[in-house]
From TrEMBL:
InterPro entries membership: Cyt_c3_hydrogenase_gsu (IPR012165), Dihydroorotate_DH_ele_sf (IPR037117), Dihydroorotate_DH_Fe-S-bd (IPR019480), FAD-bd_FR_type (IPR017927), FNR_nucleotide-bd (IPR039261), PyrK_electron_transfer (IPR050353), Riboflavin_synthase-like_b-brl (IPR017938)
This protein's name: Dihydroorotate dehydrogenase electron transfer subunit
Similarity section: Belongs to the PyrK family.
GO biological process: pyrimidine nucleotide biosynthetic process
Domain (FAD-binding FR-type): residue spans on this chain: 1-95
């Protein structure tokens, strides 16, 4: 499906925000789902998955980091040009009752923006190496945003797990949503176990087809008969943290 680029702007050193006009995708999307993007360049036949960062019912936003040739080509695309996308794909976040915490690390913020803009209220803990980005995309006044930076340039000096764990000394949450580096998500699972919270996380894996056929993006989950492998593209990218086996991820 060809979608027109409304804008494509740099929001930080290597972070870009792209808005695409696609009413069908925008109206069908749920927080945590993604689109599979085809970069229109000779020699690049595989699509790339990007979380739906937000939607207004007519357009979708993609927050992405330039880290290779494909995303570098994307960063140079101009408004009014078109991009081929498939979506929305995957299993998004479940709606959970009770007090909500959202924990994100770096570009893991991308799927959490859409989530934060759709829930009534909650606390959001965000970690960055340096200057924060994308926080202005969170337009929900019911979200209490707290920031940690490794260089101390904004908010708490340290990592986001330290910030979240310190908050748990005085605050209680019934459910946690997370996205970020796997080491961070593993620590979120530990805290969920220690404090009796239900946790869900969005995982990032390399994908081939994004339709569940090639099994490239599989991760191990607990099963009665032993580990079973689930497809991030089809069964995820969101999984209940109680099911994920981190020693094998």
């Amino acid at each position: 499906m060809l979608s027109m680029i409304e804008y494509n702007e740099r929001v930080s050193d290597d972070i870009y925000l792209m808005e695409l006009r696609s009413e069908r995708v925008a109206q069908m999307a749920r927080p945590g789902q993604f689109v599979h993007v085809l970069v229109d360049s000779e020699g690049y036949i595989l699509r790339r998955p990007f979380s739906i960062c937000d939607t207004d019912g007519k357009t979708i936003k993609i927050l992405y980091r330039v880290k290779g040739v494909g995303t570098r080509i994307m960063s140079r695309m101009i408004p009014a040009s078109s991009m081929d996308i498939i979506g929305p794909l995957g299993r998004g976040f479940d709606e959970m009752d009770g007090s909500v915490a959202i924990v994100g690390g770096g570009i893991g913020l991308a799927p959490l923006v859409y989530l934060a803009n759709t829930i009534k209220r909650g606390s959001m803990f965000l970690g960055f190496n340096g200057k924060p980005f994308g926080i202005d995309l969170i337009r929900n006044p019911g979200i209490d945003i707290r920031v940690a930076t490794m260089d101390g340039s904004s908010g708490y000096r340290g990592n986001v797990i330290e910030l979240f764990e310190a908050a748990l000394n005085d605050e209680r949450y019934s459910c946690v949503y997370a996205c970020g580096p796997k080491a961070m998500i593993k620590e979120v699972k530990r805290l969920c176990n220690e404090y009796g919270m239900v946790g869900e996380a969005s995982f990032e894996e390399r994908m081939g087809c994004a339709l569940g056929s090639c099994m490239v993006c599989s991760i191990p989950l607990k099963d009665k008969s032993g580990p079973k492998y689930a497809r991030v593209c089809k069964d995820g990218p969101v999984f209940n943290l109680s099911e994920v086996i981190f020693g094998r991820v």
